């Protein structure tokens, strides 16, 4: 009981620090622009840590250790592909998004494909991110409940209320500073846990002796699974609201690139460390439920160290939830609530709408997560849905004259229906739904482009017009 109280006090102290940060930066959220972008340009390293923390949730941390418990070091690909995705994003898109000057993914796509695509993109993105939020609350609450010795429902409520409150108070600036703290604590925590776990397992040499040889293969989970992770992960990075929103806070396109490279430098080693934890747990605690690989090692740590690691896991949940909450509320207000309820453009009303949307978006997943049975698998589906939008993003920047506006709108709905349908059918023929999410919009845009080029009385519209000067510069 004494150990439990020490861990609880560590987590409480961590939450107090988050509250203090939000209180200190509350003045930066007085306008709608400062609430959504922080009110100033942030250094590249801070945005890099922010972006990394958004992708290291409990599903990534605990899930990677879970896969490593069964399959070995190749589980690191689950997070490492995100690092590769950020390298590609830095090379291809970061500077282009920053030059475009849009803080929402829907606004960027609307520049090229029209207002109908703006609305469709917002609906798809909000649904995908809310799905991730429900999964994060449910899985994170279950893990914290076991570590803190409290019920699952109180754990979920703790996470949901805490994350919503500090976003509500401080807006984007509080999310930047607190998520940087989350990333640092998570990195140090997973490093400590990996070092302790290897020591308790008898060192790297004993791991080689105790575990099957395939546990040390880079393709142990299978190349098809690795490529599916790659498609879904890279696609999610290329077309996620909170990534675009974070990039908009960097000073210039060059530092937007640097920020995403910092993210890659954090994510790749994090994936390896989480895998080492899972492999060590397979030696130390054979026969347990694989999802308990990371938590089982945490409870064996000295109380203060365990408190630090548990605070890192709580930070993993807070970071993901905060980014999702801010991203969804920004989309809802900019694309739906402001046009319908604030046509005069009153900024104070926009701030009120942003805070109201933040409260709703932050707490609604809590209600769903409490009753959720098995939502972790749906997280991958949410990534796949965003991968479909990534096709339009790449065409927007590299082939802006390809396809039509109607084709872009059709591709969003076609990808939504096809991807979810393929997922519900159980991924027939061994083809992952991530591949379907990418193939459908590519095929749809190609058909509309060819049909428009042929012209004639049946052609629905002309091909996409040439980009404007601003768009061409981006």
TrEMBL record:
Membrane topology (UniProt): Multi-pass membrane protein
Family: Belongs to the sodium:solute symporter (SSF) (TC 2.A.21) family.
Cellular localisation: Membrane
Record gene name: putP_2
Entry's transmembrane regions: 6-25, 45-69, 75-94, 120-138, 144-169, 181-202, 222-244, 256-284, 304-332, 352-370, 376-397, 409-428, 434-452
GO CC entries: plasma membrane
Pfam families xref list: SSF
Lineage top rank: taxon: Bacteria
Protein's UniProt name: Sodium/proline symporter
Principal subcellular localization: membrane
InterPro entries membership: Na/Glc_symporter_sf, Na/solute_symporter, Sodium:Solute_Symporter
PANTHER family: SODIUM-SOLUTE SYMPORTER-RELATED, SODIUM/PROLINE SYMPORTER-RELATED
């Amino acid at each position: 009981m004494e150990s439990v109280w020490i861990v609880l006090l560590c987590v409480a102290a961590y939450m107090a620090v988050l509250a203090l940060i939000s209180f200190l930066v509350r003045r930066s959220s007085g306008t709608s622009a400062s609430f959504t972008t922080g009110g100033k340009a942030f250094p590249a390293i801070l945005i890099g840590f922010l972006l990394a923390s958004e992708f290291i949730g409990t599903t990534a941390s605990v899930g990677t250790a879970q896969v490593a418990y069964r399959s070995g070091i190749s589980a690191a690909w689950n997070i490492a592909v995100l690092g590769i995705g950020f390298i590609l994003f830095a090379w291809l898109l970061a500077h282009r998004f920053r030059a475009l000057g849009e803080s929402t993914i829907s606004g960027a796509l609307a520049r090229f494909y029209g207002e109908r695509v703006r609305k469709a993109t917002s609906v798809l993105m909000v649904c995908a991110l809310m799905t991730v939020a429900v999964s994060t609350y449910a899985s994170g609450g279950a893990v914290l409940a076991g570590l803190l010795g409290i019920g699952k429902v109180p754990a979920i409520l703790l996470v949901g209320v805490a994350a919503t409150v500090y976003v509500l108070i401080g807006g984007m600036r509080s999310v930047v500073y607190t998520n940087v703290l989350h990333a640092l604590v998570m990195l140090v925590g997973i490093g400590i846990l990996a070092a302790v776990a290897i020591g308790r397992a008898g060192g790297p040499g004993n791991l080689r002796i105790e575990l099957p040889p395939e546990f040390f293969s880079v393709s142990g989970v299978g190349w098809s699974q690795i490529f599916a992770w790659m498609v879904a992960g890279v696609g999610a990075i290329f077309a996620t609201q909170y990534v675009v929103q974070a990039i908009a806070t960097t000073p210039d396109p060059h530092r937007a690139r640097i920020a995403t490279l910092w993210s890659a430098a954090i994510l790749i080693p994090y994936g390896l460390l989480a895998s080492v934890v899972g492999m060590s747990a397979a030696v130390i605690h054979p026969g347990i439920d694989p999802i308990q690989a990371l938590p089982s090692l945490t409870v064996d740590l000295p109380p203060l160290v365990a408190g630090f690691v548990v605070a890192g896991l709580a930070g993993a949940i807070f970071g993901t939830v905060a980014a999702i909450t801010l991203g969804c509320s920004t989309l809802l207000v900019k694309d739906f609530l402001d046009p319908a309820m604030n046509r005069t453009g009153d900024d104070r009303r926009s701030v009120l709408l942003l805070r109201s949307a933040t409260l709703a978006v932050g707490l609604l997943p809590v209600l769903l997560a409490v009753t959720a049975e098995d939502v972790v698998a749906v997280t991958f589906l949410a990534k796949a849905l965003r991968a479909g939008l990534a096709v339009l993003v790449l065409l927007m920047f590299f082939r802006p004259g390809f396809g039509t506006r109607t084709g872009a709108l059709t591709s969003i709905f076609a990808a939504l229906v096809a991807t979810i349908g393929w997922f519900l059918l159980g991924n027939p023929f061994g083809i992952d739904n991530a591949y379907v999410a990418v193939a459908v919009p590519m095929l749809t845009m190609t058909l509309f482009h060819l049909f428009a080029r042929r012209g004639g009385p049946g052609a629905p519209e002309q091909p996409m017009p040439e980009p404007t000067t601003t768009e061409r510069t981006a």
